[in-house]
Amino acid sequence: MPELPEVEALALDLKGRLTDRAIAKVHVVAINALKTFDPPVHALEGTLVDDVTRHGKFLDISASGLHLILHLARGGWVRWRAELPPIPPRPNQKSGLAVRVILDDESGFDVTEMGTKKRLATYVVRQPLDVPGIASLGPDPLDDSFTIEVLDGILKQAGRSQIKGVLRHQGTIAGIGNAYSDELLHAARMSPFKPSNSLTDQELQTLYDAIRTVIGDAVDRSRGLAASELKGEKKSGLAVHGRTGEKCPVCGDIVREVSFADSSLQYCPTCQTGGKPLADRRMSRLLK
Fold first, then answer.
1. Which residues form the Formamidopyrimidine-DNA glycosylase catalytic domain (predicted)?
2. With contact defined as beta carbons under 8 Å apart, do 240 and 230 qualify?
3. What is the CATH class of 4-135?
4. Which residue from 91, 149, 153, 207 lies 20 to 30 Å from 245 (Cα-Cα)?
5. Is the domain covering 148-287 a CATH 1.10.10.60 domain?
């Protein structure tokens, strides 16, 4: 799933390609991906792209007073095309094509979604805050307004909720997902199941520094890369997420996993849980 660093890089890449270009045609191939009806999609045709920005994990393409907002969810991606055929595309499960945007010179981009769970969302709105997911976003972890006092208030308000869930909840902090919550908790040497309101002052400072460093470094590594390079860059920069069974790059212990119904987390026992493996609850249920 694209998270803050990848969406930030996508926004920068598309900004360089789209700014001051005219949108000639927008094809919505997967109708379930379109979440709005007013303004209609065809209202974008003939508009001039002003900017491409990001709100959490949402991409925002602003054009002549309208906004084409994309949320790529778990299986979505943006693929730039130097040349696109003028004929309307047909649904194709193999390609996963959901939306196609064609510019005035027949270049453009496809928005695709692979997998069986279709969660990609496309909005055409007059203001970004017209998208419910953007209106409910928490603070951006790289914004200057995201201070250690803000993080402290978030964690205390969350009570005894597990800290990983709090960090990846978009209404709490915008842009951190499953992968980077694993990474920053590893950097902070903190269990993903630690109660949010149990941090000492030193642990709070360590976690705050980890958020700013891990997310900031990932943004720096991704900046300037084309969309086609971002997935590989993300994977190469991860210390524990997606690396079950491999050695922790910090201590050499084996990275462990806890599985849930539709996701999993990875962690290092030595670095994060005092050497104690966490119970894999899905396996525990199967063994009963």
1. 2-120
2. no
3. alpha beta
4. 207
5. no
